[in-house]
Amino acid sequence: MAKKFHAGQVRKGPKGDPFYNHPRRVCKSYLTYKNKSVSGLIAALCHDLVEDTAMSLDELERMFGADVRKIVFDLTKPADISSEEYANNIFDWSLESKKIKLCDIEDNILDSREIPLERRLRMLVRWKKYLDKIGREPLSGGFVKNRELAEKFRTVNDLHTEEWDGLKIRINLLRKCK
Predict the structure, then answer these.
(1) What is the predicted pLDDT for the residue at 114?
(2) Which of 11, 55, 59, 125 has its CA 20 to 30 A from that of 65?
(3) What CATH number is associated with residue 160?
(4) What does the alpha-carbon distance between residue 89 and residue 133 come to, in Å, rounded to a whole number?
(5) Mutual orientation of helices 95-111 and 21-30 as an angle, nearest 10°?
């Protein structure tokens, strides 16, 4: 289904990778969690359908049920709201939505390495907003209750920090060359 609806779409960057590979990688990452659900698995594959195709939440619910709809609803950033507004909602998401978002951010970071510097910088800033909101989870006790979420958060946050630091070094080198 996701492959059909994403047909003809390509990822950002010079490789022009078929878009469908992204939800497959997100799903594969989601499968590494010990505690997962069938709804989470389907939502991981379908997480970009509403945002990037003609698929609606109602259609998704008819096919896969209310649980998948809720997860995909959480993961879909409406075009008419800012990334800050979107990030503010993350704290109230379900555990499955947060798990999938971490997998999504991880794949986006890894897949963005070929994107032009300035655009990648903007993307990393946006993903950091999302990570910061998920990182507030310890205040609610969520990480205490879910070690898997905490471990994935640390992994993705560390990856982001490493990429951010590498990007700053590249920017400083470019400034010195000018």
Answers:
(1) 87
(2) 11
(3) 1.10.3210.10
(4) 8
(5) 130
What type of residue sits at position 67?
A: D
What is the pLDDT averaged over residues 139-156?
Answer: 74
How far apart CA 86 and CA 91 sit, in angstroms, is: 10
Domain residue limits at 39: 2-177
How far apart are the two ends of the chain, measured CA to CA in Å? 49
Q: Take residue 66 and report the two structure tokens written for it.
A: 């209310």
Task: Give the SS3 label for residue 106.
Answer: helix
Q: Which DSSP letter does residue 20 get?
A: T
- The C-alpha atoms of residue 126 and residue 54 are separated, in whole angstroms, by 25
Active site residues: 51-52
Say if residue 65's pLDDT is above 60.
Answer: yes
Number of structural domains found in the chain: 1
Whether residue 144 has pLDDT greater than 70? no
Q: What gap in Å lies between CA 170 and CA 173, rounded to an integer?
A: 5
